[in-house]
Amino acid sequence: MPVVSMKALLETGVHFGHRAKKWNPKMKPYIFTERNGIHIIDLQQTLGNLEEAYALVRDTVVNGGKVLFVGTKRQAQETIQTEADRASMPYVNQRWLGGTLTNWKTIRTRIDQLKQFEAEMESGAVSYLTKKEKLTRARIIDKLRIRLGGLRHLTRPPALIFIVDVRREHTAVKEANTLNIPIVAMVDTNCDPDQIDYVIPANDDAIRAIKLIAAKLADAALEGMAMRKGAQDIDDMEDVMSKLPINVDLSKYEAELDEELAAVDEDAEDDAYLGQSTLEKLRTGELDFGEDETSSAPAVDARPATPATKKPAGDRKPRSK
Fold first, then answer.
1. Mean pLDDT calculated for residue range 100-107
2. Which residues pair with 184 in a beta bridge?
3. Number of independent structural domains in the chain
4. Is 17 helix (H, G, I), strand (E, B) or coil?
5. CATH, residue 115
6. 87, 219: one domain
7. 190, 203, 285, 311 - which has most CB atoms within 10 Å?
8. What is the distance between the alpha carbons of residues 163 and 28, in angstroms, rounded to a whole number?
């Protein structure tokens, strides 16, 4: 089943390129025809390349990598942030800072500084600052959030980058190429596809087209996360099984496990019926219920009690008046 239908690509205007006079000749293999002076993109290639990109994003996340979503043009900013957040992936939707990838150590320091400032503001640790200093600190936090907020959870350079409009994001493309980071990108008819590893020929100006492509790649990231979690669960089970004796009888092991669980259930029932304090007394021996209560009771003499002898009247001392 294809990642997206041809109908969806047509309805969102993915096939509309730029005016023919503004085209980049290197995009000729991806152009279907020209109509009314506008190049029409070959959606068959778009569909095939999108499926390839989908698999790449999914596999990257399965292997523990992060996919950086990049789109700073007005039409892409909201979509990039929404879809990246949905997939728990980093993003850049404001101006790309030079050195975001090639000078990652400095960028990471700024991100740590942002986290520190936010923590101090929330804990009230800046109460010693003057009002002017607090306002300055707040402005710094706002600027760092705008520029680096989407990268706060990125601990190392991304394993893959998704870019909307490679012509606008030429600095990001150059830095990724320098570090040999693969690029998946929406490439319009006025762009150079040579520097892009995985070209998705598409209209990079229409909001609906950007939403469609970005959403599909976010879905791929979510699928990769689910597959990675499932693989970890299997690894945990294999680790448990590897700790069993080599010749263990699994049926016997299961029976012993059932007995342990039953004992736990009985303890829970006793706790609910008798109460915690009573159970504690039973454990410490404060309550002792023998099998024969009559044998443990103190012996009682069955003979009639001898009446006490009275002293003679003469032996009594007179009461003092």
1. 94
2. 162, 198
3. 2
4. strand
5. 1.10.287
6. yes
7. 203
8. 21
**Do residues 10 and 147 both lie within one domain?**
no
Same domain, 173 and 112: no
Nearest to 198 by CA among 143, 161, 231, 243: 161
Distances (CA, A) of 29 to 43, 194, 301: 12, 12, 116
What is the pLDDT averaged over residues 243-252?
Answer: 57
Least confident interval from 179-193, 198-212, 269-283: 269-283
In a domain, 294, yes or no: no
CA distance 46 to 23: 17
Looking up tokens 């705008």 gives 146
Contacts from 133-141 at CB under 8 Å and sequence distance 24+?
141/114, 141/117
Tell me 88's DSSP state: T
Give every strand in the sheet of 91-92, ordered side by side. Answer: 91-92, 67-70, 160-164, 183-187, 198-201
Q: How many CB atoms lie within 10 A of CB 59?
A: 14
> What is the amino acid identity at position 253?
Y
Amino acid at 254: E
Of the CA atoms within 13 Å of residue 175, those in its CB half-sphere come to: 19
Residue type, 282: L
In terms of residue numbers, what domain contains 134?
102-156
Asked if residue 184 belongs to a domain, the reply is yes
Mean of the per-residue pLDDT values of the chain: 82
d(CA 223, CA 300): 81
